[in-house]
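Example 9 (inverse folding). The structure is encoded as follows.
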């Protein structure tokens, strides 16, 4: 399992924080398809769990009824090329 897969799983399934993150995403795309890009950090052997209620995702796309995706949240400017 890669860091990205583990971070995504923890984001949505990790106890109370996972419930809050799932509710946050469902508010933005109720019952619909979405793509969420978040930052996950690994410190030592511990992978952090993103808290979307305090730090929005880097990017959130939702699918409309015609099948196309719309940008709902774009915080990609937080991360610049170094």
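The amino acid assigned to each position is listed next.
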């Amino acid at each position: 399992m890669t860091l990205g897969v583990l971070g995504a799983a923890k984001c949505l399934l990790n106890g109370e924080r996972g419930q809050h993150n799932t509710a946050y995403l469902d508010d933005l795309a109720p019952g619909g398809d979405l793509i969420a890009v978040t930052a996950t950090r690994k410190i030592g052997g511990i992978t952090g769990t993103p808290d979307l209620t305090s730090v929005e995702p880097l990017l959130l796309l939702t699918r409309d009824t015609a099948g196309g995706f719309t940008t709902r949240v774009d915080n990609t400017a937080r991360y610049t090329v170094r």
